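Blinded run. Sample ID left blank on purpose so nobody reads anything into the name before looking at the predicted structure. Input follows.
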Amino acid sequence: MLKKSIDVASFTAEAGKVYYYAANITITNVAGATGPGVTSGGGGANIAFGLAPLNEDEGKYRVKAWKLSTWKTK
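Blinded prediction complete.
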């Protein structure tokens, strides 16, 4: 059994502006859960996905500091 929770964000993008968001994924084992990354047996897991807007300074810092972050000028 797997329960999912998602978050959405809505905004109007302006040409030439950059927008930064932090994505958060939380997996909570339910008693007896099984599956990849789940350590107990039988049951399910709750997965939550969230988005949080970042200001420009924090966004630039996180892109630079986090090895898996990427950016590209078009």
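Unblinding after everyone has recorded impressions. The chain has a mean pLDDT of 76.
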